[in-house]
Amino acid sequence: MSRGGGSKAKEASGPRRRSAPRPGKTSGSSGPTAGTRLVAALREGIEALRSEGPGASAVTVRTYRLGVEPPPEVGPAEARAARAELGLSQSVFAEFLGVSPSTVRAWEQGKRGPSPLARRFLGEIRREPEHWRRAVRAHLKEGPAGG
Q: Where in the numbering of this chain does the HTH cro/C1-type domain appear (predicted)?
């Protein structure tokens, strides 16, 4: 028999506690949560952008230009010359550029022209061949391709 009339299970576990509020929630009537305030602010901003009111003209976008020349035109002869400057086979040149050997072949045979990005890179090779020769030498590995 237990003294005090209560069960031992209740005495051992103690009084029940309320769980703590989850992050972002508030208990009682202390006001809106941070998430609620954030959503309200975003909605207000979106509405201001959509309106023709005073806030609409405050949004500006600036465009900056680099003022660089467009990529050079690269025909078959220029593509071959860039590769020759580095003294590379079509296969190794293609690996260096990150394209397939068939792409380099197509450029050199005039079947397809290089993309603007490739033309820019080929132009840089022609402009600074010694720099790119050093870069290629720094990456050369002996052994089978692909490993």
A: 80-115
Per-residue pLDDT at 51: 73
**pTM across the whole model:** 0.53
Integer Cα distance of 42 and 44 in angstroms: 5
Topology of the domain covering 76-139: 434 Repressor (Amino-terminal Domain) (1.10.260)
3-state helix/strand/coil string of the chain: CCCCCCCHHHHHHCCCCCCCCCCCCCCCCCCCCHHHHHHHHHHHHHHHHHCCCHHHHHCCCCCCCCCCCCCCCCCHHHHHHHHHHHCCCHHHHHHHHCCCHHHHHHHHHCCCCCCHHHHHHHHHHHHCHHHHHHHHHHHCCCCCCCC
Please give the Cα distance from 118 to 79 (Å, whole number). Answer: 10
Other beta carbons less than 10 A from residue 31's beta carbon:
8
Task: Tell me the average confidence (pLDDT) per consecutive run of 10 residues in the chain, 147 residues long.
Answer: 51 56 54 87 81 60 82 95 95 94 97 96 95 90 62
Q: Say if residues 109 and 76 touch (Cβ distance below 8 Å).
A: yes
